[in-house]
């Protein structure tokens, strides 16, 4: 099952990419050696750079949500994958791994294919892929101006599957890719600890027909 949601909102340097070139650096998580750790109400942009890992809770719960981040030798390709998950709680917080600290330059109007491998490693029924377009910032918004957001949800299985989608950039100059174990904006959070594996993340510019 795939669910596509789009939200128009209203902003980093563009670059010309060759068709077939993977624009996602460290998409296979092969170079990392960091040990597993938990993140609670914090952001970690350094341990798995250029990936950023974060888990922020809403503060209205006695059981704050925490985010497990680590590596696994159960890989879809190569020698290791990224392992991450969330503890059980009643928190409405937001936890994910993304590229906000190192957004990927794109060309407005160009179409890109995004693909990745993922599996349920325990209690994770789905993975949510979010794409956020950004434009160059100004004095009031030095970090950039958010232009457009798209979200796609995929069902997971206990074995690896490869998922892909095509995305045409509207006006953004760079995009942030984010992967979350589930959609935090809707009811029905997992009742138990949820763990999933992510690997082989790619983003390629498609050639014009």
Tally of individual helices: 0
Characterize the quaternary organization of these chains. single chain
Biggest beta-sheet profile: 8 strands, antiparallel
N- to C-terminal distance: 29 Å
Describe this structure in words.
Helices cover 0% and strands 46% of the residues. It is built from no helices and 14 strands. It is globular. The protein starts with a strand and ends with a strand. 35% of the residues are buried.
Key terms:
6-stranded antiparallel β-sheet, single chain, 209 residues, mainly beta, disordered N terminus, 46% strand
Write a short abstract of this structure.
The protein has 209 residues and is mainly beta.
Protein topology:
Layout: E1 2-8, E2 37-39, E3 42-44, E4 52-56, E5 67-72, E6 81-86, E7 94-98, E8 104-105, E9 111-122, E10 126-135, E11 145-155, E12 161-168, E13 174-180, E14 194-205
Antiparallel strand pairs: 1-11, 2-5, 3-4, 4-7, 5-6, 6-14, 7-13, 8-13, 9-12, 9-14, 10-11, 10-13
């Amino acid at each position: 099952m795939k669910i596509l949601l789009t939200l128009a909102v209203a902003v980093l340097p563009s670059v010309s990419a060759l068709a077939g070139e993977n624009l996602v650096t460290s998409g296979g998580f092969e170079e990392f050696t960091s040990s597993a750790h938990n993140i609670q109400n914090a952001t970690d942009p350094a341990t798995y750079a250029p990936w950023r890992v974060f888990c922020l809770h809403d503060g209205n719960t006695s059981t704050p949500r925490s985010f497990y981040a680590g590596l696994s030798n159960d890989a879809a390709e190569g020698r290791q994958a990224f392992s991450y998950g969330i503890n059980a709680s009643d928190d409405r917080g937001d936890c994910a791994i993304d590229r906000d600290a190192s957004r990927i330059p794109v060309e407005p109007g160009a179409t890109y294919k995004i693909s990745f491998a993922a599996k349920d490693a325990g209690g994770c029924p789905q993975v949510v892929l979010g794409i956020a377009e950004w434009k160059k910032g100004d004095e009031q918004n030095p970090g950039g101006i958010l232009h457009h957001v798209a979200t796609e949800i995929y069902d997971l299985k206990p074995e690896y599957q490869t998922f892909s989608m095509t995305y045409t950039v509207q006006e953004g100059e760079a995009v942030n890719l984010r992967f979350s174990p589930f959609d935090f904006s809707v009811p029905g959070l997992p009742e138990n600890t949820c763990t999933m594996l992510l690997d082989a993340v790619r983003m390629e510019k498609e050639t014009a027909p």
